[in-house]
User: Which sequence fits this backbone?
């Protein structure tokens, strides 16, 4: 057995303040002044921010908003900025200043005489939403300002302060993998921030010992194998180092399941006739990578960031679809059940059972969830537009459901000025749909005054106007001619759908 001999070097004791809009006392959308807010350290925070969408929001320019320390928490060791979830707007610079005298207010950040030394100035990368700043120098006060006249938003701001004293406690271990269910073998790294420390750990599988308690120099890698049946693993660990107090003991639980659940696939609909009573749909803005939830957000409906796959097969007509959404990857997206009332549609949230409802006044952009579909406010018309299928309000016909272009806001009803919320339809069994397409494929050709339909097996050919009105429903055995007046039509034969122009 070999031993590693290391020198014990004392490091400064540190404490981290985690700042959110709630901890700063600003949980409303309006911009509000606050002062003398305390987190974990002795630092006191003041400034002017908004709390829209659960984030810290502030603006630069003439607004002169931001966040400063008026009482120090020690020496600044590290700052971590986490860009607000769902905010995809680029070119929003954050400027961080530091100095060794107290700030009176955030307005001092906008004067060269009082703002201090600039230690960071850059736009947040929307693809890498966390920024870590290590000051080049010793500073005891810090301030945060927006680098232009637009707003900037953070889920949280973390400031680590050092008091210069030697640490006596070993830092608690962390796990590289979040607790969850996984469908393939996993690797978990156990680490600690205390340099030179070791990890004492054990692993159980289905409550039985899997790896006996052992100690190894940090970081430690634990392999979790996939078995033929589901298994639950619990890793228990603590960090130790000679001459220091061992850390607290922590645990993490992971379930490995070889039976991955079936995909919950939603495809972007393109035709009114694609949507029927009983369908399950999701409202998605591919432009903003946003899916509507079932949660109200003021006078709007909230949203989550959506993972969208492009260029996939259209289960309705075999053509290339623009977009697909897998609900397993987007579990917080809101699913709505479709109802049909005459030629109009209702959308009832699957979990809460509430209905999408338009504003009572045309001047309002609101979108609500209500308990009953009792009025025309809860009814919607569907329209085929370039790019997909959208829902217009029956009561406010100029308004359709859209995602606000600003990342702070969710889905509401607008007059076409924002990003379209396209309707995505649930497909229970894609493979089955694809086989039906192959089996029931039809050839649809236009002729003067109608269309000719050719099929391999007897079936029904249905013809609709572009508004969704049925104008012909004819049985086809081998071939059939359907006479039609001049105009645009949609012909549906089995799972084959084609738009035609009759001249």
Assistant:
């Amino acid at each position: 057995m070999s031993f590693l001999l290391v020198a014990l070097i004392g490091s400064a004791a540190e404490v981290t303040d985690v700042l959110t809009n709630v901890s700063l006392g600003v949980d409303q959308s309006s911009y509000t002044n606050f002062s003398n807010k305390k987190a974990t350290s002795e630092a006191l925070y003041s400034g002017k921010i908004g709390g829209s969408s659960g984030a810290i929001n502030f603006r630069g320019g003439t607004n002169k908003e931001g966040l400063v320390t008026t009482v120090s928490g020690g020496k600044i060791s590290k700052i971590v900025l986490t860009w607000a979830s769902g905010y995809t707007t680029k070119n929003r610079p954050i400027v961080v200043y530091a100095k060794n005298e107290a700030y009176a207010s955030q307005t001092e950040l906008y004067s060269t005489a009082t703002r201090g030394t600039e230690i960071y100035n850059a736009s947040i990368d929307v693809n890498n939403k966390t920024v870590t700043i290590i000051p080049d120098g010793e500073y005891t006060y810090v301030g945060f300002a927006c680098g232009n006249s637009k707003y900037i938003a953070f889920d949280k701001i973390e400031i680590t302060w050092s008091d210069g004293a030697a640490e006596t406690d070993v830092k608690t271990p962390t796990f590289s993998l979040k607790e969850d269910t996984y469908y393939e073998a996993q690797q978990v790294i156990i680490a600690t921030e205390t340099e030179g420390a070791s990890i004492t750990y054990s692993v159980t599988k289905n409550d039985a010992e899997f790896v006996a308690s052992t100690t190894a120099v940090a970081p430690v890698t634990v392999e979790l194998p996939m078995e033929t049946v589901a298994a639950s693993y619990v890793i228990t660990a603590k960090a130790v180092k000679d001459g220091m107090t061992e850390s607290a003991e922590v645990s993490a639980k992971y379930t490995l399941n070889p039976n991955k659940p079936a995909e919950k696939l939603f495809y972007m609909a393109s035709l009114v006739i694609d949507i029927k009573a009983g369908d399950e749909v999701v409202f998605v803005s591919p432009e903003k990578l946003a899916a509507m939830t079932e949660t109200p957000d003021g006078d709007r409906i909230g949203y989550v960031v959506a993972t969208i796959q492009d260029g996939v097969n259209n289960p309705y007509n075999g053509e290339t679809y623009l977009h697909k959404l897998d609900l397993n990857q987007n579990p917080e997206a809101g699913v709505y059940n479709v109802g049909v009332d005459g030629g109009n549609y209702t959308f009832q949230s699957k979990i809460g059972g509430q209905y999408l409802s338009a504003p009572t006044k045309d001047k309002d952009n609101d979108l609500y969830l209500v308990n009953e579909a009792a009025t025309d406010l809860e009814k919607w018309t569907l329209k085929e537009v370039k790019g997909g299928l959208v829902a217009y309000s029956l009561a406010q016909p100029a308004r359709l459901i859209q995602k606000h272009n600003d990342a702070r806001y969710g889905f509401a009803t607008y007059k076409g000025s924002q990003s379209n919320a396209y309707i995505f339809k649930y497909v229970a069994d894609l493979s089955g749909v694809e086989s039906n397409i192959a089996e029931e494929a039809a050839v649809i050709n236009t002729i003067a005054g109608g269309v000719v339909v050719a099929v391999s097996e007897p079936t029904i050919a249905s013809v609709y106007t572009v508004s969704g009105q049925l104008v012909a429903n004819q049985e086809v055995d081998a071939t059939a001619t359907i006479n039609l007046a001049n105009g645009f039509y949609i012909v549906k034969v089995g799972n084959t759908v084609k738009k035609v122009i009759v001249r």
The radius of gyration is 30 Å.
